């Protein structure tokens, strides 16, 4: 897609790749002129390149999936949320996420095989440096996806940001910026110096050379504040980034969802009805043999009356009379956003229908209740 900067080699190829010694061929920081005004684009002091790197590297992540790899950045330490490109996560429900590890001398370990090695993976996972990330919101139009991690290392810090303020709107052409990421096939935890040019067709246009694998990486200003997420590159002198304000738009789609599922373990189609509130009409549903249906309410559990949600069905089968049986159901609460539906296996409180052929009784059972 338009030279999207995603490294697309499959996992098998990643494990077999020979890591090459690499020195970033980017324009040096000293070549960039300062802004015309001579002022910083946002409040706060300018940081040196070393300060910017040390500050940002604790937020940077490497993302690996079955369809490729790219970059991302931690935006919420408490909720363990990272942001990346939609074209990095694609249709994957989850991805593997790695944080940078330092050796006993304090040097960053930048060899990919160190993180992918099965002998290291267990320890990295226990310490939070390797985590499973679930995609909980995505928006193809802005090419963003939110990833919720199942763990964090003690060294992780969320990127400095203010999604209610857009510092790039006050930036002059030629103000220095830094782009962090993991260029494909090369060593990890790289940065590329560049300078802001303009906002072009809704994207931040930056004079900098980035490569496949930088996708999803943070673009920061001289104060170390996130201004965008790298999304496109011509791999020579131009990089485009999604403005950080769109991250807030996607975060605003996150909301709790109350979820349950009904599995049909009988040999015939089962018809049933559900509702979440007393004044709601009964919602009719049919589930075929061996199939399951998800049901969810977009809101907090406290908003649902105590005796709901409810289900009813004809529990005496094939007698041509509707003999209803009612149950109150329990739900699991999950926070999900735009473009992501609840998963039966990950999000739903599970129930199933069973049929007694001797008594001809159909009944609903709690799939998670231990005998």
Question: Your description of this structure?
Answer:
With 371 residues, the protein is mostly beta strands. The chain has 7 helices and 23 strands. The protein starts with 10 loop residues before the first helix and ends in a 5-residue tail after the last strand. Strand 5 and strand 6 form a beta hairpin. The N terminus is likely disordered. 12% of the residues lie in helices and 37% in strands. The strands form 5 sheets. It has a 6-stranded antiparallel β-barrel with strand order 1-2-3-8-7-4. It has a 6-stranded antiparallel β-barrel with strand order 9-10-11-14-13-12.
Write the layout of secondary structure elements.
Layout: H1 11-16, H2 49-56, E1 60-65, E2 68-76, E3 81-84, H3 86-89, E4 94-98, E5 101-102, E6 108-109, H4 112-116, H5 118-127, E7 130-139, E8 144-149, E9 176-181, E10 190-200, E11 203-207, E12 218-220, E13 226-233, E14 238-243, H6 245-251, E15 255-264, E16 270-275, E17 283-287, E18 292-297, E19 310-314, E20 324-328, E21 332-336, H7 344-347, E22 349-356, E23 361-366
Parallel strand pairs: 15-22
Antiparallel strand pairs: 1-2, 1-4, 2-3, 3-8, 4-7, 5-6, 7-8, 9-10, 9-12, 10-11, 11-14, 12-13, 13-14, 15-18, 15-21, 16-17, 16-19, 19-20, 22-23
């Amino acid at each position: 897609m338009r030279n999207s900067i995603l490294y697309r080699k499959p996992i098998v190829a990643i494990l077999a790749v020979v890591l090459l010694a690499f020195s970033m061929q980017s324009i040096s920081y000293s070549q960039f002129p300062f802004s015309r005004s001579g002022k910083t684009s946002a409040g706060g002091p300018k940081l040196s390149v070393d300060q910017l790197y040390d500050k940002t590297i604790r937020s940077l992540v490497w993302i690996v999936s079955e369809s490729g790899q790219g970059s991302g950045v931690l935006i919420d330490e408490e909720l363990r949320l990272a942001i990346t490109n939609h074209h990095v996560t694609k249709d994957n429900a989850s991805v593997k996420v790695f944080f940078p590890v330092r050796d006993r001398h304090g040097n960053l370990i930048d060899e990919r095989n160190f993180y992918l090695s099965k002998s290291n993976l267990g320890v990295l996972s226990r310490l939070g440096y390797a985590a499973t990330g679930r995609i909980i919101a995505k928006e193809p139009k802005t090419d963003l996806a939110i990833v919720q991690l199942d763990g964090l290392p003690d060294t992780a810090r969320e990127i400095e940001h203010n999604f209610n303020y857009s510092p790039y709107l006050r930036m002059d052409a030629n103000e220095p910026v830094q782009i962090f990421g993991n260029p494909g096939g090369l060593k990890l935890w790289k940065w590329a110096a560049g300078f802001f040019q303009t906002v072009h067709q809704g994207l931040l246009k930056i004079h900098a050379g980035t490569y496949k694998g930088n996708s999803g990486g943070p673009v920061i200003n001289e104060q170390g504040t996130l201004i965008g997420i790298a999304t496109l590159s011509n791999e020579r002198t131009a990089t485009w980034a999604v403005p950080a304000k769109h991250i807030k738009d996607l975060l605003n789609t996150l909301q709790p969802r109350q979820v349950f599922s009904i599995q049909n373990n009988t040999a015939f189609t089962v018809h049933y009805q559900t509702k979440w509130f007393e004044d709601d009409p009964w919602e009719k549903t049919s589930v075929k043999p061996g199939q399951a249906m998800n049901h969810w309410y977009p809101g907090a559990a406290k908003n649902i009356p105590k005796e709901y949600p409810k289900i009813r069905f004809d529990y005496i089968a094939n007698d041509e009379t509707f003999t209803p049986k009612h149950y109150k159901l329990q739900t699991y609460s999950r926070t999900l956003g735009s473009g992501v539906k609840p998963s039966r296996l990950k999000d739903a409180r599970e129930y199933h229908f069973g049929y007694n052929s001797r008594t001809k009784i159909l009944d609903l059972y709690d799939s998670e209740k231990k005998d």
